[in-house]
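Case study 2.
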Amino acid sequence: MKPTGKPTDTRKLQAGINRSMLWLVLGMLVIGGTIFLYFAYGPQAGLVGAACLVGGGVLVLLVYLVVIVLGKIAGEE
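Prediction:
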């Protein structure tokens, strides 16, 4: 194997992948769930479901932020 000459920061790469996966999951949760509810139960249920799913997405974001803050307190970068 030839060395590339550039060091890689795998923690930074992993953090970027984690953020991308978070947004993908939240998008699938809110958008996919809303579309499913709309077609399965009708427009009113779709709107109510969208409000609930956005609330769930906010809770997931809060948990993610708590993990990030605890990681910074513990000294991870």
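Residues 25-74 form one domain.
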